[in-house]
Amino acid sequence: MGGGPRNGSCIAYNPDDVEEILGKVLKMAEDKYVNPITVFFHTCFKVAAVAAYLIGGFFSASYVINFVVTITLLGIDFWIVKNVSGRILVGLRWWNEINEKGGSIWRFESLDQQSLQQLNKNEAWLFWWSLYINAGVWIALGIVALIKFNLDYMLIVIVALVLNSANTAGYTKCQKGYHIFC
């Protein structure tokens, strides 16, 4: 037998205890990360998109609902990484412009070298590894979709890989020195 409540009994939580525990968790995050809210949102939508993809079928038999929810979460993740966490966590920024001839021009910006050295190393590590691990997870899910010959779900994987690859390529090129100092 487990140690949980029995016979319909409940465990009463003191709101002060919950507040104290939450305060300790936030304090631990602040000790490790200078920007814990940015770190949270940087990882939150990656995990949420994978979770929606994996367990969406349990909540709805409709592929369309799972598609819309997962793609929306992927879009939010792309936007947050490109426009928020890249600037705050690693001091980099990229964008793409179309010139008059219809050609694509990638633009890169970076903080100056002194400012880059002052960034939190834990946040930078989390930023880069979450990009790479997320791509690996989606590749694995794509292999599973191919093995199961589930082409509908392969479409979601392709969108996930395109969005993740765009951010990974943009930030990698930016980090490698293709940038303009701002």
Automatic annotation (TrEMBL):
<dbReference type="InterPro" id="IPR008564">
    <property type="entry name" value="TVP23-like"/>
</dbReference>
<comment type="function">
    <text>Golgi membrane protein involved in vesicular trafficking.</text>
</comment>
<comment type="similarity">
    <text>Belongs to the TVP23 family.</text>
</comment>
<feature type="transmembrane region" description="Helical">
    <location>
        <begin position="33"/>
        <end position="55"/>
    </location>
</feature>
<feature type="transmembrane region" description="Helical">
    <location>
        <begin position="125"/>
        <end position="147"/>
    </location>
</feature>
<feature type="transmembrane region" description="Helical">
    <location>
        <begin position="61"/>
        <end position="81"/>
    </location>
</feature>
<keyword id="KW-0472">Membrane</keyword>
<feature type="transmembrane region" description="Helical">
    <location>
        <begin position="153"/>
        <end position="171"/>
    </location>
</feature>
<protein>
    <recommendedName>
        <fullName>Golgi apparatus membrane protein TVP23</fullName>
    </recommendedName>
</protein>
<dbReference type="Pfam" id="PF05832">
    <property type="entry name" value="DUF846"/>
</dbReference>
<keyword id="KW-0333">Golgi apparatus</keyword>
<keyword id="KW-0812">Transmembrane</keyword>
<keyword id="KW-1133">Transmembrane helix</keyword>
